Structure formats: structure tokens, C-alpha cells
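seq:
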Amino acid sequence: MGTLSQDQLNRALIERQLLRERAGLSALAAIEHLVGVQAQEPKSPYIGLWTRLEAFRPQELEDLLTGREAVRMLLMRGTIHLVGARDALGLRPHTQLKLDRELRSGPFASRLRDLDLDEVAEAGRKILDEVPQGTADAGRQLRERWPDREHTVLGNALRNKLALVQLPPRGLWDRSGRAVCTTVENWLGRPQRAITAEEIVLRYLGAFGPATVMDAQQWSGLTKLAGTFHALRPRLVTFRNEAGKELFDLPDAPRPDAGTELPVRLLPEFDNVLLAHTNRRRVIADDRLGVVVGGKPTVLVDGYVVATWAVTKDRTITVDYLDTLPGSRQKAVAEECDRLRDWMRG
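struct:
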């Protein structure tokens, strides 16, 4: 069992995240390879795919959303992700335990006490499948049946209890809208069918490995994955990180040398590269985690976060450096910003 350095883990992650070299994949193939794209901010998936793919155009993703081949919904860690239709139906059942725990212990728990949440969910399903709408709007209708409860509380119960998708125009590139929802079963015309925990772990390693059990749990929001890793051990290879923790990986997955050269990459807000491990130092120093929590887009130079970026009203790109970089590196950052600017204006 060999030891992998921090830079080796960084290079492996960058490679698997399609960030070393832009891939000649379709948007849907990339979304499925990445096991979903973080999507709290409606425009973020477009930037995340632009920075990873050779010829990505916004219309390609818009067509996936309007054509019901990809959806926006609560998934990993109870946050909004953009996923392909198959993963929407296969991953969402695994998220339910976390969302149920939130209802029992979250900020609305006391106001949901003594309420039959399954009954509320079934009533909400009928409302949202008949007329897609915001969860708060559905909550107002549910108050006719539960007048002693606030509509926002009832709407939040639906958000957690039902597998809801946010419908276009929410999440389109040139226009958007409020979060209007219906159930994933209604939108896709198929029932949920959970994929196995083993498949989730294998796909996670393919996109984010090598990784520890806790890394997989951090990314997914699932618990008790140690047994799944144990069952998969004969199919995996293992390493140690510099702290001595055991890392699991797919035998044939790429693990580039620590000195592999990497290009500048611009990441959108909350990119999964920054959120998919317990030890974020794989890509960002601990004292810089605030820029991720604050929802700032970030700049990778040599595989690590060194700056944040923003778009002005005229769609030029500004950069706020966290490190002092040599002129050659700053020039490379400026050139990548110009490429993004031209793409956004095109």
C-alpha cells in the first residue's frame, strides 16, 4: 500500500474532473461522469461545463433541461444538483434519509411536531402534480387542511418529503424564473428506482478518487458507507495519504504524477471539486474555505485555488488574487478570463 502525496491527490482529482484537458464529451455524458453538477446558483452548471468541455454551448444544456433529459433537484448533501434523468431517479431515494433527519431536527422540527408528514406529502403530491408551483404556494393550499400550520412550514415539508424537480425556465442560460416544482416521477414519467450503494461508491471514486470512506460520506450526505467499501474491497486498490489514512480507488483510474502541469481553470460557485472531500486541502487551503462558503467563483492555478473571480455588468471578468503570482501565471489567468468573456458574449 503506497502513499500518495497531496499533489498526487490533487492531480488525480483534476484529471477525473475533466479539468486538466477539456473533454470531447457531450454535456449529458459529462454530467453523468461527474455524478451531477452543483447547481444552487442557476447559471453555475453552464460555467462548470464550459470549463470542462471542448465545445460546450449553453443551448446544449438548455435542451437537456427542456427535453427532460436532465433535471435540477435536491440530491447530494441535501443541496440542488443538476443530474441526468437516470441519476435523478436512481440517486434520489438515497437522499431521503438525510432529508427526513432534517425535518426531525432542523429549524422547522418544532413547528412540524404531531403532524403526519406522510399525509402532508401525499396531499402535496396531488397539488404539485396537477399544477406545478412553488412549495410555499402549495403550502398555502395545504393550510386549508392544516390551518394551524404556517404555509412556509408545510412547503418545507414538501421540499424534503417529495422528490421535486425545478422546472424550466428555472436554470436556463438567457432567462430564468422562480423555482416551480413538480415530482420527479410526474416530470419524467417513471418511478424512482434506487441504484445500489456500491454503484454510488464506484462512480464517486471514478470522479473524485482516491478517497476515504469519510470523503464519500461528505460528498453524498450518506452515512454508514464503511460496509459498502468493505464489500467492494476486492475490486479496489488502496493507498495512504500523508496523514496515514486509507484511500480507496479504482484499479485503472488515472493517477498522474505530482509534477503534471495543469492549466488555469475558472470554477463556478460551490463547484464539487471544492466540496467532495473531508480534507479540502486537496484543492484549497483551510484558511481560504470562506470564499467557498461565501459562494465566490474561484480560480485554479497549478490545481489549487489562488483567486476568486466575478462578472461585471458588461460581462468582463475581474480577478481578486489570494496569492502573489508571477507575471506569467497572471497572464495565463487573464487569457482564461478573456476566453470565458468571449464565450459568455457569444
